[in-house]
Structures are given as structure tokens and as C-alpha cells.
Design brief:
Elements lengths: L1 H5 L21 H16 L1 H6 L4 H8 L3 H17 L1 H10 L2 H19 L5 H29 L5 H43 L2 H6 L20 H17 L1 H12 L4 H27 L5 H24 L3 H24 L1 H5 L4 H30 L3 H18 L24 H6 L14 H10 L1
Length: about 450
């Protein structure tokens, strides 16, 4: 009876309901969802991170400042994150399948319309607003769907799904450079719009669930101190995360390297990103260290590598710049999956879907301001050195904020969520019992889960 109650969590959009006795999670259907997420993340964040190849072309064509051009990507990222609660609400009202398919259509439409832009405002409205809304309707529902299908290998599944971002960064940078030379920026955006429409069939793979009771209201998390602390840290990560992807190619070209050598740095960063995601997923699921401690370590290393990037170009060493870029890619890839996998540890699985949407909405402030601030610093100083150093400092500051979470310095974490909460506790408080659990809690792969498996047999 107790086990049955433990397994009757609120299901996220796209999660299947299983007959009694059938394996509920970690099965083949979950890996199909991982494949769909792989393609979706490739065509969302992989594309966003490779748009820096267009940066110099836009500056030259529109004769605008680096700061003004930086707003294109920043608006798209900010809208994607700001509208994430919209994707969550639509999934709760309808189903993840239709939401993701609609989002794929909007993502492609925005890029197709952007290919006809005659001013920066047109790019803000098309690539920024329309595609941004589409990305919001794709990303959060897909992440929630994958998380709902896995228990033991949740972090590894997310890491595999997110490798599409790194792979596309590896492939897209030289591909976009080729498209620019062959078709110009208008033709390239038209092709990317058509490519983005492939998200629609990926969304069709989501199996609509039976109607479930509505989840707890996400707005109650605004009074949840650990969640707000975690969100503040992620907001600082977000402020620095996209800066290299927007300005690293331009930094390489300013340092005197050819277009293809500068794009190669981005490609190498993407390849290292893939390895980092897989390594982090595997190490986290071993359960040897707390997820939050690993996230802090990867975040701090990411900040260090970004801040060191200008050293390579300053010394005139292309290979040193390439090495720092790969170090950044590995660590940035490692932390990405852990950021989302850590949400259930903060709020519990019952409020995971709403928390994902609210987290991305609040962190959008960092995504909106990070790249334009970097462009502003470049316009004032004439180089990207200070921009990259400041971006690295954002990551270091975020890692320090993580250390202020309750029970952060405990190796075992607070009591397990299965322990009885105080009498008179609200439903939310009962779900939140055992916040920031150790690797042995529900949301990570550890001993408690193994004990639960034995109890089922």
C-alpha cells in the first residue's frame, strides 16, 4: 500500500499511464522520448547557440552596433524562457503532443519570416518573438516528458537528450558558415526555418496522457526560499551562458583568424559539450556525490574557462583559444543537464513541471541582459576581452549562491521525502519534506531507490 501511494505522483505532460504490473518508467518508450528530445534540443538550443555565425553579417548589413545585434539572440532566449509557463499551462490544459507540434511550426515560421527582414525590428519580432514563443512550447514540455518517464536513469536520460545541443553546435557552425557564403543570410535563415519544421513530427511522438487532476499551483513556489535561491543562481548562469556562443566567433575573427578557423572553435566547443553532458549524466547517476555539489563544481569550472578565453588570443595562440573553448564546452555541457535534474530535488516531483516553467521564466532576465551587456562592453572597449571575463564572473557568482542553499554542506542531505512531515502540514509542505535530498533520495540514483525496488518484489 505504501509503495502504491509513493508511485502515484502527479504525472507530467506526456507521461504514460501504465497498467498494474507493467514497468512504469525507465522503459523503451522513455528512450523514444529521449530521441525526440534529442532532435528538438538540436533544433532549438543547438540553433540558438550557432546563430553567432550570423553576428558579423548582421553588423555589416544593418550597420548597427554589436549591442543592437546582440538583442536578436537575447530576445529569442528571453522569450523562450519567459513563455515557458505558457508551455506548461497549455500542456496541463490540452496535451504535450499538440503543444510541441504547434511550437515547432512557430519556430520554423519565425525563421522563415526573418529571411525577409529589412530592419533589425523585423528580426526582433520574427527570430526573437515568434520563434521564441515556439521554442518555449517545445523545450519545457519535452524536458518534462523525459523526466516523467525515468526514475533510476533520469539524469543520464536528460544528458543524452541534451547531447543534441552539443552535436548541433559542432555541425551547425561550419554548416551555417557555408550557407552564408553560398546563399547569404536570407537564404540561410529560410533553410533553417524549413529545418526547424522537423520539430513537428518529433512532437507527434508524444503519446497524449489520460486527464489527471491539476498539479499544485506553481506560483506558491514564489514563497519557497530554496527554489528562489536556486533560481537566482541559475539566472546568473544564464547571464553568462550564451555570451561565448554569440560573440566567440566574432572574437576569433577580431583576433585575426579566418572565418572558418573562428567557426572551428565553436565546433570544437560543441564536440566537447557532447562529452561533458554524457560524462555528467553517468557520474551523477553513480550516486557517489550529491547532484548540487557536482553542479557547483561544473559551474565554477565553466566560469574559469570563459574568463581564460581572451588569454589565448592575447598570446596569439589559436590552439590555446581552442583548448579553453573546449574546456568551456565540456563543463557547460555537464552543468546543463544537472540544472534541470536538480529541480525535483528542490521542489519534489509533484511540482516539477510547474517549477521548470517558472524557473525558466525567472531566469529569462539573465538571458535577456547577458549578451547585450557583453555587446555594450565590446562597443565601449573595442574588444571582447572584458565581455568574456564578466561572463565568467557570472558563473562564479552563481556557484557561490548555490552554496547558500539549506543543507548544502551536508554530504547526506536532509531527511528523505518519505519521512513523515509535521502534523498540520499543507500538501505542498508534505511534498517538500526532504528538500535538497542526497543522492539516496527519490530524485537521484541511490540506495533508497534500490530499497524501494526490493519492496516492490
Amino acid at each position: 500500500m505504501a509503495t502504491a501511494r509513493q508511485e502515484s505522483h502527479e504525472r507530467a505532460p506526456g507521461e504514460e499511464r501504465h497498467a498494474p504490473g507493467a514497468p512504469a518508467q525507465d522503459g523503451p518508450r522513455g528512450w523514444v522520448m529521449v530521441g525526440a528530445m534529442f532532435l528538438c534540443t538540436t533544433l532549438v538550443f543547438g540553433l540558438i547557440r550557432s546563430l553567432g555565425v550570423f553576428f558579423v553579417e548582421f553588423v555589416q548589413y544593418f550597420q548597427e552596433s554589436a549591442q543592437a545585434i546582440s538583442w536578436i539572440t537575447s530576445i529569442g532566449v528571453a522569450v523562450q524562457q519567459l513563455c515557458s509557463p505558457l508551455g506548461t499551462a497549455l500542456c496541463n490544459a490540452y496535451d504535450g503532443q499538440r503543444v510541441v507540434m504547434t511550437g515547432g511550426f512557430l519556430a520554423g515560421l519565425g525563421l522563415i519570416l526573418a529571411s525577409q527582414a529589412t530592419s533589425l525590428l523585423h528580426l526582433y519580432l520574427t527570430m526573437g518573438l515568434i520563434s521564441g514563443v515556439g521554442w518555449a512550447m517545445v523545450f519545457t514540455p519535452m524536458v518534462a516528458t523525459v523526466m516523467a518517464h525515468f526514475t533510476r536513469r533520469r539524469t543520464l536520460a536528460l544528458s543524452v537528450g541534451f547531447t543534441g545541443v552539443g552535436l548541433s553546435s559542432f555541425v551547425f557552425a561550419p554548416l551555417f558558415q557555408y550557407l552564408l557564403e553560398r546563399f547569404g543570410w536570407r537564404g540561410s535563415l529560410l533553410i533553417l526555418g524549413g529545418l526547424s519544421l522537423n520539430i513537428v513530427p518529433c512532437g507527434a511522438l508524444i503519446r497524449p496522457p489520460r486527464r489527471a487532476p491539476p498539479p499544485p499551483k506553481a506560483l506558491s513556489l514564489l514563497a519557497h526560499r530554496p527554489f528562489l535561491t536556486y533560481t537566482l543562481a541559475v539566472t546568473f548562469f544564464n547571464a553568462g551562458y550564451f555570451v561565448p556562443y554569440v560573440h566567440l566567433v566574432a572574437h576569433g575573427r577580431q583576433a585575426g583568424y579566418s572565418e572558418y578557423r573562428a567557426a572551428l572553435v565553436m565546433s570544437a566547443t560543441g564536440a566537447a559539450d557532447i562529452a561533458g553532458r554524457l560524462a555528467a549524466g553517468w557520474l551523477t547517476d553513480l550516486g557517489r556525490a550529491r547532484l548540487l555539489h557536482m553542479l557547483t563544481g561544473w559551474t565554477a569550472l565553466t566560469g574559469v574557462f570563459i574568463a581564460l578565453m581572451p588569454l589565448g588570443s592575447a598570446l596569439g595562440s589559436y590552439w590555446l583559444l581552442l583548448a579553453f573553448g573546449m574546456g568551456y564546452g565540456f563543463c557547460a555541457g555537464a552543468l546543463t543537464s544537472l540544472v534541470f535534474a536538480g529541480v525535483p530535488e528542490i521542489v519534489g516531483m509533484g511540482r516539477m513541471v510547474g517549477a521548470l516553467g517558472l524557473l525558466q521564466m525567472l531566469e529569462s532576465v539573465g538571458g535577456l541582459l547577458g549578451a547585450p551587456l557583453s555587446g555594450f562592453l565590446r562597443d565601449r572597449t573595442g574588444s571582447y576581452i572584458i565581455s568574456l571575463v564578466v561572463a565568467g564572473c557570472f558563473f562564479l557568482l552563481g556557484s557561490l549562491i548555490l552554496a547558500t542553499l539549506p543543507h548544502y554542506f551536508s554530504w547526506t542531505g536532509p531527511p528523505s521525502p518519505r519521512q513523515r512531515p509535521p502534523d498540520g502540514a499543507s500538501p505542498e509542505e508534505r511534498q517538500d519534506a526532504g528538500l535538497l535530498g542526497s543522492p539516496t533520495s527519490d530524485s537521484a540514483d541511490g540506495t533508497a531507490r534500490k530499497d524501494s525496488d526490493r519492496s516492490r518484489t
